[in-house]
């Protein structure tokens, strides 16, 4: 792999611009067609539990407090206190300042702790600040780092700068897994999303993630489809499996199931696991729990019966 | 069961619940921001101000890209839905004194324009055989926000609004027959017409029309309903400031006649695209 | 693998009677001589209904009814004819789920397609031509174009209701009356359409439906009191019809077979091209006259494209047409299945390499797995003859000129596809293709506003769009 990466790096621009184009109408039609799949009964039950296990339960607000974060951690460990068969979520996702609190609250649970870093959400800070941000989060107990790329540099064509930053942050992560947020809503085209995906993967990302959740367009099915195609092709070429995390705007079970269908029919089994696919979401979890309850009880559930955290 | 015959009840007199006639802006029915009303046929009707006109232009501008971006098929379906809802409310219009055959003609006029949505481009657009290795095609596009000074009759009103919106323009319409206009607004509001595509203002032309004619964010001005030649000339002069497309009033327009294409083409731009052809 | 539980569309939305008569002059009646035939569900071989087989006297009655209705129908103001057609369009929208299920039962196509493609297009087609009925003077055929009279229309089994819409909507909009014969294996949706006409209160005799086999159709198109013949089907039958109407003065439009080239250049958007290839040949089980049945791949792209295509084909879900997740349904008839099998055998015998993904086919019914042949050359029969099934022949080319030459090297000329990110190449190649419809970076797209029809032995005349009016105007 290293040989290919350095070869690619020597002319990153021609490599990225040599990737096949993405036809907007075609990719959106394909995503829309897959969204019509009808997932019922046993398949739905299976999908809901898998989706719960893939949730990165997220709070990224200026108003976050230790109390709020502890409550969310409790929810992550036991999403449905009334039903011990309900699995825990994959991870909690917080700001670095909240990482220590979250680490304590999650200790021994097996739930991962993800922290955003690198001057989230804008990424507009000097590299040293970003690296310090990352090291702090890891030191506080985060075992997953969600970094943002410098969209400004990417859009200005300075691919090497983006690449080098990811490499540096990856190093600062130490043993922590690195999710690279492309902020697809700011990249403007599907071609750019494909290029940014490859750029992040070549630079060492463990996951590529759509969005910060802080801009107008967050995760969509066609954007995620383009990223899934990228990780599929990357594995074919380099043998390494990169995870994908759509984030922002996924609010309902119906939404989540569409993403699982997308995985199932484009990249397949290997990505149907919390190690390879995550949902960055907050309100999604309660909808998953309500639908899960509906499947077991046979009647529709109401929000008053699920915890708000 | 036989009704009680003890003592005949006095003839029940039920008091009618009257309708408040307000403006129609952005899909909602607000009162005039000025708080003013005027009396028309015994009803207190909202008297639109220049600020209402300004708000209506904002609503029309906000609605325009999405309306123009809807498929022609979709716009046609919406116009056909207007016809359905107008037919269903036929009695409301006849109660306002609109002759039944005029309501029928207004319904049919919506149907006629509904059919144009996905055909006008095929009639006024097309491939141009330029002398060179180029693909060259012309297609009509809506001009944008159209300010309309509408005739008082229902058929006249429909005959100026429908050709403007069918192609993707949005409108701010000054109306003269307030009850008929606002009842039509109620038809529009229940017909899948997105809010802001048609905005209807009741009031005095001489007060509000100049503000629309001079408004920098209005693209075209339809003066069909202006019956005062001096006002028409003044409005046309004001419209020249931003080179608005102007439809001049014509003496004695017969709205029952086949409207032809002009009411639509007057509010369309032609876009021509060139593209080379070669391996 | 994430297995989807069965998700069957409810069959209870449609009630199929045990037998159907002919729809003549506004009412149903049994055929004169009482002959019937059975229509079956090709996915299960279950008999759905018995349908009257129209003999010569029945066709005579239908043509006479259409002739009687023609006077008043053609004299109606266009705006009034328009409103009938708008009504029909609306009723089809209202009954679309019922009609979609019916279509999938009788035809074998997946409910996803009948629900999301066929029925929306059927309604849209009636809407579109409804709008023309009172605008004919603007259509470019003179200030006051006149209808022809009685139109005899014979349609195929691949898109039963959609082909009906393509025939009936423009005919009625222009003031003609029709006698329509649906295909023998898929008569039901046309008979349900008769009920749509009844609900719309369409005057008696304007639309007449006669069911039957090829003989019925042959008698209908040869009928002396017919002014116009419109046929969609095989090139062989089209040729016979052209012979039979010769010298009669009848107007004729034909929409016949095809062997479309789907050309993929090495700068194509690959993932979307793969979708386009799959959609081009496996949509509707490949029972599509404009199917992209010849894939022409630039040689430098051949291997990666084949890998991607095979990977994608492995995810196609073949099976119960009523399951909402089915991608490829049943072959329409035993006869068609036999033809597909025979031509595929010939492909193997002639040395092409055959590949299908693993897929479990149901035990009952008519099924054929999605199949591709590589190593095909212009000399192979599977590169020249229309298979009309889910079978793709893959050829390669080196330059655009070679692609164009191979694409045009066929007696057919219905459609073609081009995949490239370079606009000027697309337009230049499109210019040189001898085909009536050229799709670039998409395939199998249909719209009532867009004319459709072939060059050469794919037929003549256009259906759809402003151009589609011409076939029904004097």
TrEMBL record, chain A:
GO MF term list: deoxyribose-phosphate aldolase activity
Gene Ontology process terms (BP): carbohydrate catabolic process; deoxyribonucleotide catabolic process
Single GO cellular component term: cytoplasm
Top-rank lineage group of the source organism: Bacteria
Enzyme class of the recorded protein, top EC level: lyase
Keywords associated with the record: Lyase, Schiff base
Coiled-coil annotated spans: none
Biological or metabolic pathway of the protein: Carbohydrate degradation; 2-deoxy-D-ribose 1-phosphate degradation; D-glyceraldehyde 3-phosphate and acetaldehyde from 2-deoxy-alpha-D-ribose 1-phosphate: step 2/2
EC number(s) given by UniProt: 4.1.2.4
Lyase in keyword set: yes
Chemical reaction(s) catalysed: 2-deoxy-D-ribose 5-phosphate = D-glyceraldehyde 3-phosphate + acetaldehyde
Pfam families in the record: DeoC (PF01791)
InterPro entries assigned: Aldolase_TIM, DeoC, DeoC/FbaB/LacD_aldolase
Family classification: Belongs to the DeoC/FbaB aldolase family. DeoC type 2 subfamily.
Name the UniProt record assigns to this protein: Deoxyribose-phosphate aldolase
Annotated source species: Actinoplanes xinjiangensis
UniProtKB/TrEMBL annotation, chain B:
Signal peptide as annotated in the record: none
Database matches in Gene3D superfamilies: Aldehyde Dehydrogenase, Chain A, domain 1
Domain Aldehyde dehydrogenase: 44-246
Alphabetically ordered keywords of this record: Oxidoreductase
Pfam families (UniProt xref): Aldedh (PF00171)
A GO term for molecular function: oxidoreductase activity
Keyword Transcription regulation appears in the UniProt entry: no
UniProt xrefs under InterPro entries: Ald_DH/histidinol_DH (IPR016161), Ald_DH_N (IPR016162), Aldehyde_DH_dom (IPR015590)
Protein name, UniProt field: Aldehyde dehydrogenase family protein
Source organism (scientific name): Actinoplanes xinjiangensis
Automatic annotation (TrEMBL), chain C:
GO molecular function, one term: oxidoreductase activity, acting on the aldehyde or oxo group of donors, NAD or NADP as acceptor
Pfam families: Aldedh (PF00171)
Family affiliation: Belongs to the aldehyde dehydrogenase family.
InterPro entries, per the entry: Ald_DH/histidinol_DH, Ald_DH_C, Ald_DH_CS_GLU, Ald_DH_N, Aldehyde_DH_dom
Span of domain Aldehyde dehydrogenase: 35-473
The keyword Cell cycle belongs to this UniProt entry's keyword annotation: no
Keyword DNA-binding: no
Keyword terms: Oxidoreductase
Source organism of the structure: Actinoplanes xinjiangensis
PROSITE patterns: ALDEHYDE_DEHYDR_GLU
Active site: residue positions: 255
Protein known as: Aldehyde dehydrogenase (Acceptor)
């Amino acid at each position: 792999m290293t040989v290919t990466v350095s070869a690619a790096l020597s002319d990153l621009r021609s490599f990225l611009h040599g990737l096949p184009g993405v036809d907007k109408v075609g990719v959106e039609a394909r995503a829309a067609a897959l969204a019509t799949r009808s997932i019922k009964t046993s398949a739905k039950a299976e999908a809901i539990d898998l989706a719960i296990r893939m949730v990165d339960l997220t709070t990224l607000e200026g108003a976050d407090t230790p109390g709020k974060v502890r409550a969310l951690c409790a929810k992550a460990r036991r999403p449905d206190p009334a039903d011990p068969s309900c699995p825990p979520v994959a991870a909690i996702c917080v700001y670095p300042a909240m990482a220590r609190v979250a680490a304590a609250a999650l200790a021994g649970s097996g739930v991962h702790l993800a922290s955003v870093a690198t001057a989230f959400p804008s990424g507009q800070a000097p590299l040293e600040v970003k690296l310090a941000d990352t090291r702090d989060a890891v030191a506080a107990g985060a075992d997953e780092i969600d970094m943002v790329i410098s969209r400004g540099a990417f859009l200005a064509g300075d691919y090497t700068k983006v690449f080098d930053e990811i490499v540096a942050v990856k190093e600062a992560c130490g043993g922590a897994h690195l999710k690279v947020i492309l902020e697809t809503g700011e990249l403007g085209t599907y071609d750019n999303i494909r290029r940014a995906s490859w750029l992040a993967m070549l630079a060492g990302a463990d996951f590529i993630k759509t969005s910060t959740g802080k801009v107008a367009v967050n995760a969509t099915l066609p954007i995620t489809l383009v990223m899934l195609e990228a990780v599929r092709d990357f594995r074919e070429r380099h043998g390494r499996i990169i995870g994908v995390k759509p984030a922002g705007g996924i609010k309902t079970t119906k939404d989540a199931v569409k993403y699982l269908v997308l995985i199932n029919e484009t990249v397949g089994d290997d990505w149907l696991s919390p190690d390879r696919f995550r949902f960055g979401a907050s309100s999604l979890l309660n909808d998953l729990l309500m639908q899960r309850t509906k499947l077991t009880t046979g009647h529709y559930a109401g929000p008053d019966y699920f915890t708000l955290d | 069961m036989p009704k009680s015959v003890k003592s005949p009840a006095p003839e029940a007199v039920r008091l009618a619940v009257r309708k408040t006639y307000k403006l129609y802006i952005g899909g909602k029915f607000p009162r005039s921001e000025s708080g003013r009303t005027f009396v028309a046929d015994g009803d207190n009707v909202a008297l639109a101000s220049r600020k209402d006109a300004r708000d209506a232009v904002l609503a029309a501008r906000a609605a325009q890209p999405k309306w123009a971006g809807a498929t022609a098929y979709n716009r046609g379906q919406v116009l056909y839905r207007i016809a359905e809802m107008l037919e269903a409310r036929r009695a409301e219009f006849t109660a306002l004194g609109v002759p039944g055959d005029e309501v029928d003609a207004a319904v049919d006029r919506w149907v006629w324009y509904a059919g144009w949505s996905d055909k006008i481009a095929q009639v006024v657009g097309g491939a141009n055989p330029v002398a060179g290795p180029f693909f060259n095609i012309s297609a009509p596009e809506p001009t944008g926000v159209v300010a309309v000074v509408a005739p008082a009759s229902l058929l006249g009103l429909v005959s100026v609004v429908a050709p403007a919106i069918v192609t993707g323009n949005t409108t701010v319409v000054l109306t003269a027959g307030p009850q008929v206009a606002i009842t039509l607004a109620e038809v529009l509001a229940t017909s899948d017409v997105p809010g802001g595509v048609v905005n209807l203002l009741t009031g005095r032309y001489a007060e509000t029309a100049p503000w629309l004619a001079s408004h920098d964010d209005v693209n075209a001005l339809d003066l069909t309903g202006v019956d005062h030649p001096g006002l028409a000339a003044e409005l046309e002069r004001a419209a020249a400031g931003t080179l608005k497309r102007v439809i001049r009033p014509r003496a004695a327009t017969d709205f029952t006649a086949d409207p032809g294409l002009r009411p639509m083409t007057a509010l369309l731009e032609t876009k021509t695209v060139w593209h080379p052809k070669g391996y | 693998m994430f297995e989807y539980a069965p998700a069957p569309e409810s069959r209870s939305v449609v009630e199929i009677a045990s037998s159907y008569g002919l729809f003549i002059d506004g009412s149903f009646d049994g055929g004169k001589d009482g002959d019937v035939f059975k229509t079956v569900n090709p996915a299960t071989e279950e008999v759905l209904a018995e349908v009257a087989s129209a003999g010569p006297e029945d066709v005579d009655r239908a043509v006479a009814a259409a002739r009687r209705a023609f006077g008043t129908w053609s004299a109606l103001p266009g705006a009034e004819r328009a409103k009938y057609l708008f009504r029909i369009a609306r009723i089809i929208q209202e009954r679309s789920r019922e009609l979609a299920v019916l279509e999938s039962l009788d035809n074998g196509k997946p409910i996803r397609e009948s629900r999301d493609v066929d029925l929306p297009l059927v309604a849209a087609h009636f809407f579109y031509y409804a709008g023309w009925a009172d605008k004919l003077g603007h259509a470019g055929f003179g200030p006051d174009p006149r209808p022809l009279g009685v139109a005899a229309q014979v349609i195929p089994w691949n898109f039963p209701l959609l082909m009906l819409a393509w025939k009936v909507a423009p005919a009625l909009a222009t003031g003609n009356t029709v006698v329509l014969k649906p295909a023998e294996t898929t008569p039901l949706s046309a008979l349900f359409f008769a009920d749509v006409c009844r609900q719309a209160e369409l005057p008696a005799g304007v639309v007449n439906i006669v069911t039957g086999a090829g003989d019925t159709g042959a008698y209908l198109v040869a009928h002396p009191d017919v002014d116009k013949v419109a046929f969609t089907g095989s090139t062989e039958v089209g040729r016979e019809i052209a012979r039979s109407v010769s010298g009669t003065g009848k107007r004729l439009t034909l929409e016949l077979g095809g062997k479309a080239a789907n050309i993929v250049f090495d700068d194509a958007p690959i993932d979307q091209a793969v979708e386009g290839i799959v959609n081009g040949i496996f949509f509707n089980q490949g029972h599509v006259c404009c199917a992209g049945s010849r894939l022409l791949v630039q040689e430098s792209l051949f291997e990666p494209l084949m890998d991607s295509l095979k990977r994608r084909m492995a995810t196609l879900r073949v099976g119960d047409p009523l399951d909402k997740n089915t991608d490829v349904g049943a072959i329409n008839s035993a006869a068609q299945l036999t033809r597909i099998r025979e031509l595929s055998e010939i492909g193997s015998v002639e040395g092409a390499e055959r590949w299908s993904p693993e897929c479990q086919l149901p035990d009952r019914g008519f099924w054929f797995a999605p199949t591709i042949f590589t190593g095909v050359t212009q000399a192979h029969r599977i590169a020249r003859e229309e298979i009309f099934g889910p079978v793709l022949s893959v050829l390669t080319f080196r330059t655009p000129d070679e692609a164009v030459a191979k694409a045009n090297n066929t007696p057919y000329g219905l459609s073609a596809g081009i995949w490239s990110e370079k606009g000027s190449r697309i337009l230049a190649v499109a210019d040189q293709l001898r085909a009536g419809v050229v799709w670039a970076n998409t395939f199998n797209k249909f719209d009532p506003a867009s004319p459709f029809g072939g060059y050469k032995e794919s037929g003549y005349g256009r259906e759809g769009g402003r151009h589609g009016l011409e076939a029904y105007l004097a």
